[in-house]
Specification:
single chain; 440 residues; alpha+beta; Cytochrome p450; six-stranded mixed beta sheet; 11 strands; 7% strand
């Protein structure tokens, strides 16, 4: 399997020149830098490139992103939906700057229809993903205790028991087995449901909603229906736990609303993305295990040096192409000059690519190679800055348990079909195998 494909330059739109106006901003931003002034500072701006969200095969790196990276550290893109164009930062240093600089705002995006991957765009009040400081810290505080290192240590024995029960069933039924259906999907969803406080009777429908929300196959109508179902359920659950003293997320949110620390609508906006986040572990671990099962040298190292699996998993987190195109945009609140001299004008939307940053040769020598002993490995798989993934510690816990348990309990684990016959998820924001048939 190749780690990167050479591809033609992304489809080019009509080249834009210094006469091109900046993307329209809300009045407050436009007042700081008018379109004419914004155009003047980008006389030599790169052309706008279409990014049509291709469907790379397996763990192949997105060829469009690879071509954009080759063009320069900062380019301009247009995604399938929304309006206008946006800057794209791909170099590690620039990605860290944009994601940790208060001059780039997430909240401003909620007032705009910027170019984007998904057809639906309805940010909810209270969502951490769209909050700037100091609101971000205020909103994060009520749920922070559920995702600390100490909380994960308490969770670990229970999570291990849940995983052991699933693997017991796989061993009992014998090979072959689909790891996605039997382990990789039910385990993270169950663990996240316990952290969140989802009753067992509601877990299947909550999972169905979250799965639909991250899919791009059903269009805006299907995604909106799933969001209405999920957020309606969350609203009722938070309200019912206003007097709870539990330590699950919905109880913590219900109590925070009762104390007046956050609004009920904000609690719902907080909980939704955390609930949806459980889907990522399934897909990411699916990619990681596919790589281990198709690269004998990786499998040998994990089996022969079990106490040193941590660095290998971190390298796989760096390397796997875990998502399609890019995540969420930011808006420049004032003119900002990046390290290479690119001038981002106030009002301009900006995307970053963590996938590209994790392949920056200035930080990761020979970045397209999986190097199990890579040190240091300051990857950005969980983001950077205030919007660093809230559930990163939980995701690492689940990933470690999954790999350790499967390799230790199934010593002869191998694919039951040729690698090219593994089916992959299509038209989804988070990439991963749809099935992973194995034997042992």
């Amino acid at each position: 399997m190749t780690t990167e494909t050479s591809a033609p330059t992304p489809t080019e739109t009509t080249a834009r020149t210094s006469a091109e106006p900046a993307p329209p901003g809300r009045p407050g931003v436009a007042a700081r830098v008018c379109p004419e002034a914004a155009a003047a500072v980008r006389g030599d701006a790169p052309p706008v490139r279409e990014w049509p969200a291709p469907e790379p095969a397996g763990t192949e790196f997105d060829p469009v992103l690879a071509a954009l990276m080759a063009e320069g550290p900062v380019t301009r893109i247009r995604l399938p939906f929304g309006e206008g164009w946006a800057w794209l930062a791909t170099r590690y240093e620039d990605v860290r700057t944009v994601t940790n600089d208060p001059r780039f705002s997430r909240a401003e995006v909620t007032r705009r229809q910027v170019t984007r991957l998904a057809p639906h765009f309805a940010p909810r009040p209270g969502s951490l993903a769209w909050a700037d400081q100091p609101d971000h810290n205020r909103l994060r505080k009520p749920v922070a205790g559920a995702f600390t290192v100490s909380a994960m240590k308490r969770l670990r024995p229970r999570a291990q028991r849940l995983l052991d029960e699933l693997v017991d069933g796989v061993v009992r039924d014998g090979p072959p087995a689909d790891l996605v259906a039997r382990v990789l999907e039910p385990f993270p969803i169950t663990v996240v449901s316990e952290v969140m406080g989802v009753p067992e009777a509601d877990r299947e429908r909550v999972h169905a909603w979250t799965r639909r929300i991250i899919s791009t196959s059903g269009g805006a109508e299907a995604a909106d229906a799933a969001k209405q179902g999920l957020y309606g359920w969350i609203t009722e659950t938070v309200r019912a736990r206003s007097n709870s003293t539990g330590d699950d997320v919905y109880s913590l949110l219900g109590a925070a609303v009762a104390r007046g620390e956050i609004e009920a609508e904000e609690a719902v906006g907080l909980a939704g993305p955390l609930q949806i986040g459980g889907e990522a572990v399934t897909h990411n671990c699916g990619q990681m295990l596919f790589l281990v099962l198709t690269r004998p040298e990786l499998m040998a190292q994990l089996r022969e040096r079990p106490t040193e699996r941590g660095p290998v998993l971190e390298e796989l987190l760096r390397w796997i192409p875990h998502r399609s195109t890019v995540g969420l945009a930011r808006i420049a609140l004032e003119d900002v000059e990046l390290a290479d001299g690119t001038r981002i004008a106030a009002g301009d939307p900006v995307y970053v690519s963590y996938l590209a940053a994790n392949r920056d040769p200035a930080v990761f020598p020979d970045p397209d190679r999986i190097a199990p002993d890579r040190e240091p490995n300051p990857h950005l798989a969980f983001g950077h800055g205030p919007h660093h993934c809230t559930g990163a510690v939980l995701a690492r816990l689940q990933t470690e348990l999954l790999v350790d348990t499967l390799l230790d309990r199934l010593p002869g684990l191998r694919l039951a079909v040729p690698a090219e016959d593994v089916r992959w998820r299509r038209r989804t924001m988070i990439r991963g195998p749809r099935t992973l048939p194995v034997t042992w």
